[in-house]
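W.,

You were right to be curious about this one. When I first looked at the sequence I had no strong expectations either way, so I just let the prediction run and decided to look at it fresh. Below is the sequence, 282 residues in total, followed by the output.
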Amino acid sequence: MRVAGIAFAGVSTALLFWLVHRILTSAWCKYRDTLHTEAETQLAEMFVFIDLTLLWPVLVALAVSVGFFVWLLSNSLAISVLVAFGFLTIPRAALVRARHARATRLDRQLPDALRMVAGALAAGASFSSALHAIAKDLHPPLSQELSLVLREQRVGIPLQEALNNFRLRVDTQSVGQVTTLLRVGVESGGSLSALIDRLASSLEAHQHIGLKVDMLTTQGKMQALVIGVLPILLLMVLCLIDSGVMYLALSTHAGKAVLALIAILEVVGVLWLRAILREVSV
């Protein structure tokens, strides 16, 4: 009876480890494939065409290196594993930041581009020829998007659909207003020059207000950055000055609990500040 119980416990443990291994392996492969697909798609939408074959191996190697370094400092396997897995999420955050920066640059180009289109239309040019003329004079990223709209139109895609694709690629409020106005104007066949010029003035005024808000909130952002980074820098300095005392904080359960509480408060503070700044920006 005892032997049967031991055998049953061993089989149950083996099945549990097999199930956990299968779940973790499936999640690992799914995240790898999803990350590669998302990175390739989003970079292509930003007109960045690079080979991402080595992305995952390099990312895993860096994550293992960072996790090993954290393990040497903290002597905690759990903390090092969490840091290593957290490092794997950096590419997604970098892609989101790059897309936001590109969309911001494109929005700032819109008022001048709209005035150029309005001037060309007032001079008697057609809408397609006006877009073709200004696409050569503008700088990326707006010139890339307009050139893609014109290429789609040349291969047989209707202009309204090409503009809608532009809105889907760059999903900002300014691009939505511009594409909606242009699609309605092209369908109705009315005069667009005056409407486009008024929209350019409206977008310029809105961007001016946004820049003033950013300027007024810069001090608060810098204070939050300094306060947020200061505990991490202080921890590194204390590790160099008095490594014996910091070893207790990094190796004992009480020290780990305090460090975990500090990390949680840091994350809560960042999320809280982002919510406040988002409300101010809106």
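Here's what jumped out at me. The chain has three domains: 1-52, 98-206, 217-281. And, maybe more interesting for your project: The mean pLDDT is 82.

Coffee later to discuss?

I.
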